[in-house]
Design brief:
Elements (H helix, E strand, L loop, with lengths): L1 H35 L2 E5 L3 E6 L4 E7 L3 E7 L11 E8 L15 E6 L1 H16 L1
Antiparallel strand pairs: 1-2, 2-3, 4-5, 5-6
């Protein structure tokens, strides 16, 4: 009888832990999809625009003359495991221009495929714009 209760307790514990971690994973995936799933980055002659296809609106924009330099960061939070993405960091020149109380400036383009190419395009666009 004791073996049956230990086995039952083990099965129930594993089931509860499985459900718990399953819910955590689902919430993480849903959050990622809601935040980044519909984002599209557009590089124009004079600016970088983040466009949300789901909301059909521009989320933020960065003038290319405000981008001093770009770097590619890879790591646990910049490029999730088993993905081939990374984060392109923007070194901006207009950080001190924050005048509105709730205004913020984006300093990164997250989870980008082929980040080296994106970084190079931003630097090329910046140098072309500066001439």
């Amino acid at each position: 009888m004791r073996i049956d209760s230990v086995l039952l307790l083990s099965v129930v514990t594993l089931a509860v832990l499985g459900v718990y971690f399953g819910v955590i994973a689902f919430v993480g995936i849903a959050h990622f999809e809601l935040v980044f799933g519909a984002m599209e980055y557009r590089l124009y002659d004079d600016e970088l625009v983040a466009y949300d296809r789901r909301l059909d609106t521009i989320q933020w924009r960065v003038p290319l003359d405000a981008v001093r330099d770009t770097t590619v960061e890879e790591g646990l939070f910049e490029s999730p495991p088993t993905t081939e993405v990374a984060t392109v960091m923007l070194n901006r020149t207009d950080d001190t221009e924050e005048t509105e109380p709730y205004r913020f400036y984006r300093h990164s383009i997250v989870f980008i495929e082929n980040p080296e190419r994106v970084s190079r395009l931003l630097r090329t666009g910046r140098s072309r714009f500066a001439q």
